[in-house]
Amino acid sequence: MTISLAGRLARVRRGLLLPVELRRKVLADTAAARRYRRVTWAQAAITVTVGALLAGLVFFFALWLMSRPGTTVAWSEAGLSIHSGEPPPGTIGSRLDEEWRIAAGLAYVLFGTLTLVEGVVIALSREHHDQVGRDAALLAGIEPEDPEAVPRVRLDLRWLWNKVKRKVRGFRMFAAGLPVMAVVLVVPVVGSYAYGFVTFLWSLYWLTVFAGAKSAKAWVETPPPREPLFIVALRRIPVLRWYAGLWSRQTKAVFAPCSRVEERPYELAGLAMARLLGTLPVLYLFFRPFFPVAAASIVGERGEAARDQPAA
Questions:
Q1: What is the pLDDT along the chain (312 residues), one digit of tens a residue?
Q2: 79: which strand partners?
Q3: Based on the structure, what is the number of domains in the chain?
Q4: Which long-range contacts (CB under 8 A, 24 or more apart) does 166-169 make?
């Protein structure tokens, strides 16, 4: 069955707005809303208070150093840099010698400290998010993936280790495709731009994969997952078949969530957009519990996806 452009956009929109809809369901229920507000507002208050305090200490220390003779403080994409003496021209970014630059530097430091503190807060209190997500799943008629439990504030080292392993694995999956994409660099004039564009698309693809992978349902290997389409396509190029085999072995662990993207590409693309927009510090705390539930809802529609496929 052919899906119109309007139909595709509607599916993307559904994935994009699904976390918002789940949040609305929670807020409409008195008990669930009470738990949600208690958890998220407490986390947000701690994150903002500690993050702002740390940012203020770091930034005012930098300003104090700047007031000392022979010390230069600058702000660039790499962050604040402190130099003793006069650094070479063009190596330090923008000096903090104007009000707008001071404001920009403070905003940069504040963003970093809020992100750092938020990560610590989530690591210590993620069990509370799990229970909020469970409430959302039950209210939306979705089978919860987290058991009912009394949440605690603690550091789960196993969860933290798994988080690190997933980050490393995700980087490895992303990096495995870069050598193939580097072929476009040989195109005259526009090669570097083309490489930047395909790398951007490659990043979006993996964001979509791991948006769906937030649900345990995405990792179910029944029926056995097939190779992703990009590996299948690469096997058709004689000179690159050897790399397709290597690439397949590198990505075999994520064949299942890759298959879910091929089954529900538009909804998961919308969910990936929602995750990208919702990663701003503090805002993320209010939507994080709903991303796994939204993924479970979308991935659970695999039967509908199968019906959408044209008959053989």
A1: 577 888 899 999 999 999 999 999 999 999 999 999 999 999 999 999 999 999 989 878 777 766 666 666 666 655 666 666 555 555 555 555 566 667 777 888 899 999 999 999 999 999 999 999 999 999 999 999 999 999 999 999 999 998 898 888 888 888 988 888 888 888 888 888 999 999 999 999 999 999 999 999 999 877 788 889 989 988 888 888 888 888 888 888 899 999 999 999 999 999 999 999 888 999 999 999 999 999 999 998 764 444 444 433
A2: 76
A3: 1
A4: 169/253, 169/254
Please report how many Cα atoms fall inside a 13 Å half-sphere around the Cα of residue 263, on the Cβ side. 22
Distance (Å, whole) CA 284 – CA 47: 11
Domain that holds residue 85: 5-308
β strands within the chain, DSSP E:
71-76, 79-84, 94-95
